[in-house]
């Protein structure tokens, strides 16, 4: 099954509209700067926190550049969660577009 993926420039409008974004980087990476509203679920804990991804809405998964988030999407697909979309370019792409980031341990 192919994982759905969008380029990071499509995420801006989705974030503005309140879409759920899950960041699968490590806590220190997240705290140093993340997409506003993004919820932290480190890659190593994705399967034990799969309830964070179980939603009727699409869940957009990000990491630094798109590799770990793709892994997370693949792991979730393997356990039957198919509403996840990988964000190619990740947080670095978000920043390179000039978008705002938030620091600290809270989503916004």
Automatic annotation (TrEMBL):
Listed PANTHER family: FAD-DEPENDENT OXIDOREDUCTASE, PYRIDINE NUCLEOTIDE-DISULPHIDE OXIDOREDUCTASE
InterPro entries hit by this protein: GlpE_sulfurtransferase, Rhodanese-like_dom, Rhodanese-like_dom_sf, Thiosulphate_STrfase_CS
CDD domains, A to Z: RHOD (cd00158)
Source organism of the structure: freshwater metagenome
Stored SUPFAM superfamilies: Rhodanese/Cell cycle control phosphatase
Domain Rhodanese: 15-103
A single GO molecular function term of this UniProt record: thiosulfate-cyanide sulfurtransferase activity
Protein name: Unannotated protein
Pfam families cross-referenced by the UniProt entry: Rhodanese
Source lineage: unclassified sequences, metagenomes, ecological metagenomes
Gene3D superfamilies attached to this UniProt entry: Rhodanese-like domain
């Amino acid at each position: 099954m192919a994982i759905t993926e969008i380029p990071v420039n499509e995420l801006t409008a989705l974030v503005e509209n309140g879409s759920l974004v899950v960041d699968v980087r490590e806590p220190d990476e997240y705290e140093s700067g993340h997409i506003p509203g993004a919820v932290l679920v480190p890659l190593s804990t994705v399967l034990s926190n799969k309830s964070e991804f179980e939603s009727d809405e699409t869940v957009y998964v990000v990491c630094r550049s798109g590799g770990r988030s793709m892994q997370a999407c693949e792991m979730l697909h393997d356990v039957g969660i198919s509403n996840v979309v990988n964000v190619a370019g990740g947080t670095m792409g978000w920043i390179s577009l000039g978008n705002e980031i938030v620091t600290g341990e809270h989503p916004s």
